[in-house]
Amino acid sequence: MKSSRNASTIRDVARLAGVSVATISRYLNNSAPLSADTAERVQTAMTELDFTPHPAARSLASNKTYAIGLVLNDIGGEFYTPLLRGIESITSAEGYDLLIHSTRNNQPAKTALPKAIKRRPLSENNTDGLLIFINAVDEAELMRLKKINFPVVLIHQSSPKGLDIPMVTIENQSGGQQVVDHFIEEHSCKRIVFVQGPPDNEDSKAREKGYLLSLKNHGLPYDPELVIEGGFESAQAYEAVKGLIKRGLSFDAIFTGDDDNAIGVIQALNESGKRIPDDVAVAGFDDSLFARILTPPLTTVRAPNELVGAEATRQLVNLIRGENTPLRTVLPVEMIIRRSCGCKNPS
Amino acid sequence: MKSSRNASTIRDVARLAGVSVATISRYLNNSAPLSADTAERVQTAMTELDFTPHPAARSLASNKTYAIGLVLNDIGGEFYTPLLRGIESITSAEGYDLLIHSTRNNQPAKTALPKAIKRRPLSENNTDGLLIFINAVDEAELMRLKKINFPVVLIHQSSPKGLDIPMVTIENQSGGQQVVDHFIEEHSCKRIVFVQGPPDNEDSKAREKGYLLSLKNHGLPYDPELVIEGGFESAQAYEAVKGLIKRGLSFDAIFTGDDDNAIGVIQALNESGKRIPDDVAVAGFDDSLFARILTPPLTTVRAPNELVGAEATRQLVNLIRGENTPLRTVLPVEMIIRRSCGCKNPS
DNA sequence: CCGGTTACTGTAACCGGTTACATTAAGAGG
DNA sequence: CCTCTTAATGTAACCGGTTACAGTAACCGG
């Protein structure tokens, strides 16, 4: 049944050390100077009793939770694991607990409370700060959090206008631009297709902007017909490329919004008898695990996901401590040259 | 700075509803019958004040945390995302918070407490129960948890002798057996290689057992030279297969302990001029995301990772509620036939 | 009409920490 | 030697819930 917690309390320690509970607390939190002698007696007593402060009591009294919350819309995707890893390493190193909640299941989210009591699973009630992943909470909630001045860092999502919430993302635009630059400068491509992600996806939009910029910089015309929708899903990208070919459009390169798209793109090209990279150069974005084992190995852009998680968490910890952080952090990406773009001797 | 929590408390609600705090608490927890009239006044007052019970206070008074902890040695691998997803969906549906901690970083794990106070990041102090992933905590800690009768469910790991801790895993042995059965019965293989995972990995051992069993059932001899070490890593598997070929051993099929191994295996075979599946049939285990895009597409065994997470969590919730659960749950796997085994028209 | 339930509600102690305030002792300055 | 700080520590209120215990009113069977 209920594991009756009968661990020792701060009062036990105080008694054994022959001091008051306040002294113990001060020792725990370094909140006031203690004489060397007292400190030692306290430490001895704590070790003796194997004392661990009760988090709930600490939290109740100090109005801090020593926890950080991560909110995302869905747990899935390859970027997810390294991201979480980065987050966990910092929370853990900084002595915070990490709480995770997915907002995907719109299920009424039965709470521990029987009645219909509104309860936000992760909020100022049970965390000291929130990491919010793209599209995980709506703008109204962001406003509410901002209004009560609760520490929040957004990941891969810009702050809504006027809210000025710090955010961390990657160099999507520059990454996209590099890829297209490479197509044009190294492989003399002229008609380059861009495969978009989901319509509302900020990452995809920024990559597209890089695509457009590169075209412009090189004096190449922008043909809207060459921009198709892949939704970051291989099946959709497959269909989109098929359609492109059916409509008889000519092109000599495809920059897919992400690596998943690339799978569908490659399949569609293969089935249509187009050789990669000889007839069509291909490049993706993300450097997913499978990028190197595709045939041909995929040229792509590596996103530093673990770093994103770590950096966002670091910033959140700063906010919690009352320090300042930059409003916008954009982490660098790295282009990974393999064979799908036509390069001969990739590293 | 510190977001001063000035939300309303149970006493505010009591005052507004004209009842005592005990009544509010009873309403919250359904712990005693209330008159319809009172219940309504309480509900109205709570809505009016936008009342949310303070988790820490609740936790301190009731000696429950309403949180479940997940402990793993490292955050990584493909199985991880679906597993976590399964876990999160149940914790969330049951009204629990989900806490995550990785034991990888042996760093001294600086705590919120300045002094050297032993603090287990996830324990009976801040959770109501623990999900422990393979090799995440040592046996001593498991014993300690068992001794205080703390709810624990192990994932992909058997309970140490005598402790009788419930565990959830998948049909590794039967999965392995099915693969080898298939090699022998459908493709008339006679000399089948098994590529092991890490030496202490329980999953790998069970798969190997299935391999041995199938050989035996079909009257095929067991040749220890055909069992090599891949460590669940493609590079190591690559080397191991190379070594096999160099030593001049003959074989007509390879069952790789997992899909990662399969990548290295395929590469080694390709480089040695062996055709897949004509010269050597190949099959993996896991049905990783990339299995279908390997060349040829990989025959493998699908592990129901999300289900494992969900089922383990369900059992943990049962334990927390004081109910019983089976000591050993083994979830079924499904063999996925693709081309690498030699089948012509896989579904 | 009476003792015994049963339904409902209130009072106040308690969970285990933190911290404002008070107190004492020791050192500093004149 | 006296007053003023400063260091070190104790006392007790407080954080916001839960729940043991007690009390009241209505109900029930005989």
What topology does this entry show?
The structure is a homodimer of 347-residue chains.
Chain A: H1 10-17, H2 21-29, H3 36-49, H4 55-62, E1 67-72, H5 80-93, E2 97-102, E3 129-133, H6 139-147, E4 152-155, E5 167-170, H7 172-187, E6 192-196, H8 202-217, E7 227-229, H9 234-246, E8 253-256, H10 259-271, E9 281-283, E10 300-302, H11 305-320, E11 328-331, E12 334-336
Parallel strand pairs in A: 1-2, 1-3, 3-4, 4-5, 5-11, 6-7, 6-8, 8-9
Antiparallel strand pairs in A: 10-12
Helix pairs in contact in A: 1-2, 1-3, 5-11, 7-8, 9-10
Chain A binds a DNA duplex (30 and 30 nucleotides) through α2 and α4.
Characterization of this structure:
Two copies of one chain form a homodimer. With 347 residues, chain A is an alpha/beta fold. The first copy, chain A, has three domains: 10-53, no CATH class; 67-170 and 306-332, Response regulator (Rossmann fold), CATH 3.40.50; 172-303, Rossmann fold (3-Layer(aba) Sandwich), CATH 3.40.50.2300. Chain A is built from eleven helices and twelve strands. Chain A has helices at residues 10-17, 21-29, 36-49, 55-62, 80-93, 139-147, 172-187, 202-217, 234-246, 259-271, 305-320, and strands spanning 67-72, 97-102, 129-133, 152-155, 167-170, 192-196, 227-229, 253-256, 281-283, 300-302, 328-331, 334-336. In chain A, the strands form three sheets. In chain A, strands 2-1-3-4-5-11 form a six-stranded parallel beta sheet, with helices on one face. A four-stranded parallel beta sheet of chain A has the order 7-6-8-9, sandwiched between helices. A two-stranded antiparallel ribbon of chain A has the order 10-12. The first copy, chain A, is elongated, with a radius of gyration of 26 Å. The structure holds a DNA duplex (30 and 30 nucleotides).
